[in-house]
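User: I'm putting together a teaching handout on how multi-component assemblies are represented. Below are the sequence lines for each component of a complex, exactly as they appear in our records. Could you produce the 3D structure of the whole assembly as structure tokens, so the students can see both representations side by side? Please keep the chain order the same as the input.
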Amino acid sequence: MDDRLPGIRPRQSWGRRLDMAARRGFPLVVTVLLLLLAAAPFGLSGQPQIQFAVALASVFFWSLFRPASMPPLVVFGLGVVVDLLGYAPLGTNVVILLALHAVATAGRRFLARGGFVMVWLAFAMLAAVAAGSQWLLTAVLTLRLLPVLPAVFAALLAAGLYPLLAVPFARAQRSLAEPERA
Amino acid sequence: MIRLSIPLRQALAKLTLPVLIALAFGLMLLGKADVLLAERMRVALADALAPIWGVLAEPLGKVRVVVDEFRHAVTLYGDNARLRAENDTLRRWQSVALALDAENTVLKANLHWVPDPTPSYVTARVVADAGGVYARAVLLSLGPNHHTSKGQIALDERGLVGRVTEIGSRSARVLLITDLNSRVPVTLERSRGRAMLAGTNGARPRLMYWPEGVMPVEGERVVTSAEANAFPAGLPVGVVRYSASHVPEVEPDARLDRLEVVRLFEYGLHDLAPPELSVPRQVERRR
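Assistant: Of course. Below is the structure of the complete assembly, with chains in the same order as your input.
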């Protein structure tokens, strides 16, 4: 893509290409690492919800601020990982994360111009919808009535966790994960 | 790379998302149609990750110990008083237990009692939370040549934890008794009434289907029953507690929220399918 832009750029050496690839891959790698860490035995209650919240926040943030590093295929892969790690019926989190990605990219123009609080509020609402649809999909796929409380907790946790993730992500977006800086 | 015209490329880029969403629904159907596939993928992933989590578990355990020690230091005075009182009670119970043990030995000798075989067991470290938002389970790390199998019974140092539902080459998944899919046949110790212990995903599983004329009593001990040949009789499960809405629940003896090491017992009972494999139950009658 950058090849089409006019201007003077450093030569495309192997080192630079590697550097750019690493910067492009940063969101995916960090998200996967966070997901694995969220499954480690901390002995916290509600750890599965943390996993779900991390996936939501990460996909939302990167779809909004750097969609090139969070393309649909990567979102699909992350969804499968969340499904497998979280023992959810296969495909539920894939659908939810893809829908979130679609909403985030569609609302980019509008949201990215708004301040942090507006993005946060939008995320909180989307997280509530996501937790609700996860509840519904899991209930339909396992054919049982599930308790509602975990879903409410998941939505609240996702909304609460978002700033904790978004602040370091925003810093990384301008420094570590910026392919132009390679 | 194939050179495509720009409009074609843009059209393709726009198509990716709908196609992937359709694929995700396809994945859902596939997961429903071929349950074994999902299970195999999970086991493979767990096998690959178990060593990593096993390495992580060590420093995490140390941090937890430090935090616990700090907390204990704060509550030292109160703990001491409570322990002294508890010690007195236990001393009294100890003499009762010794007397009963002696009596039991004599009675068994008179009855030509055939002792139960001592079950073999292995001890394994809990390396990860293998539950989901709607599941309660833990992942154990096992050596590559383990001899554990599905249906083995997991206990911690205090009581029943759950059953092994999935086995990989380096890992095993234990479904906790608090999981929504867990059903454990139990005996109410005082009345000897049989009941079913059903998980709710909450901290306390619920008692169901106790016989007519018998009510679970608050504080009564609950042990496993050998009915349905899924468990041996008499493993400690927990204590009956009534919830605020007057539903009898069981407070598990095992410390399910902070499992570190569990023992897997082989009792030679095999009748278990993982919850994802079993046919969903029809509408359950609640009492």
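A couple of points students might notice: DSSP finds seven helices and no strands in chain A. Residues 2-181 of chain A form one domain.
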